[in-house]
Amino acid sequence: MGDQTTCAALSRVLNKAKPFLAIISLQFGYAGMYIISLVSMKHGMSSFILSTYRHVVATIVIAPFAFVLERKIRPKMTLPIFIRIVILGFLEPVLDQNLYNIGMKYTSATYGSAFVNMLPAVTFILAMIFRLEKVNVKKIRSLAKVIGTAITVVGAMVMTLYKGPIINFVKSGGATHHGTTTESADQNWVLGTIMLLGSIFGWSSFFILQSFTLKKYPAELSLTAWICFMGTIEGTGASLVMVRDLSAWKLGFDSRLLAATYSGIVCSGIAYYVQGVVIRERGPVFVTSFSPLCMIITAALGAIVLAETIHLGSILGAIIIVTGLYTVVWGKCKDVKTSETDEKSNGLQELPITNNNTTISSISVDDGINIPASKSPYSTQGT
């Protein structure tokens, strides 16, 4: 009996921890993608072609699983759902990824991953606009979400407007060449920041639309396969327009193939599916709330693998962003606890027990008390 109780308790703990473990694992996957993608682009690969190949790989990997595992539960495809999938295939696979890759190329992998910390705040604002999040300024948890969002925006402005001195966490000889083209580098930094901002808005919009689409098309694997397929088609069109040199499509056994394969399997196929599952359970704001972990991992890998330089402004801005982010997360967690309490209180149904029109007592359904109808002299009313 004791072993069964322990196993049941462990099972409940694991079920509660699944969303956290899933999203944290994705942050490690994204951090690796940022480094590998930047290496491939520095070797001459176009960001548009990388994004297209990424979704070709993701479609090939995910589509068979979706076809087999969800053949009995897959909803019927309708025109409104298909239009949403077409838009989803543009927002993240084409708009977000290409703007992010270009912005990261103009700045650095560390700066780009730190800028992603704005994602929860932007997602929260959009969720509030589309009424996926409720705000009551009279309650502390709602104020925390609003104030945290404002702090996050301030942190992003610090990162954008203040560069500061270089902070050498890992000594390397690769930092000396940065002073030769300061003006050009600053211009690229501003342009890269604008690209990253556009990427964040595209990514946030993707999460919001994905949340609405899952309500009409609750088949995560099939939706993932459709998004990757549409991303392939739309990405191919964008790549043919932006890159006229057909030789740029060639792949070898190098960083280009590794970047396309890794990002396609981990950061498109698996990530879209996991995010869809967690969004249905916890909402889009929860999914985006772990991005600071990705920043820390990417900063460490970027300093070690790519010998990237980290500026004081990036560190200060990231600290401010993380502070605002977890203020938002605290308010979101309070919302979850409040909603769970409300659901439990609403789930208690009172059954009045009467005898000769005289009320004896009131027993809750959750009390677990059963009164056999054949033996009880009382009659029950209202089920």
How does this structure look, described?
- Helix 3 packs across helix 4 (109-115).
- The chain has helices spanning 2-42, 47-69, 79-106, 109-115, 119-129, 140-161, 182-216, 220-242, 255-282, 284-287, 291-305, 312-346, and strands at residues 166-167, 310-311, 350-355, 358-364, 379-380.
- It has a 3-stranded antiparallel beta sheet, with no helix packed on it. Strands 1-2 form a two-stranded antiparallel ribbon.
- The protein is globular, with a radius of gyration of 25 Å.
- The chain is mostly helical.
- The chain contains 12 helices and 5 strands.
- The two termini are 33 Å apart.
Distance between the termini: 33 Å
Determine Rg (CA atoms, Å). 25 Å
* Mean pLDDT, all residues: 78
Largest sheet entry: 3 strands, antiparallel
Order of SSEs, N→C? HHHHHHEHHHHHEHEEE
Shape, per Cα inertia axes: globular
Helix content: over 70%
Secondary-structure-based class equals mainly alpha
Low-pLDDT runs of 5+ residues are: 172-181, 348-383
Strand proportion, as a percent range, falls in: under 5%
TL;DR?
With 383 residues, this protein is mainly alpha-helical. Helix content is 71%, strand content 5%.
Keywords:
two-stranded antiparallel sheet, 12 helices, about 70% helix, globular, disordered C terminus
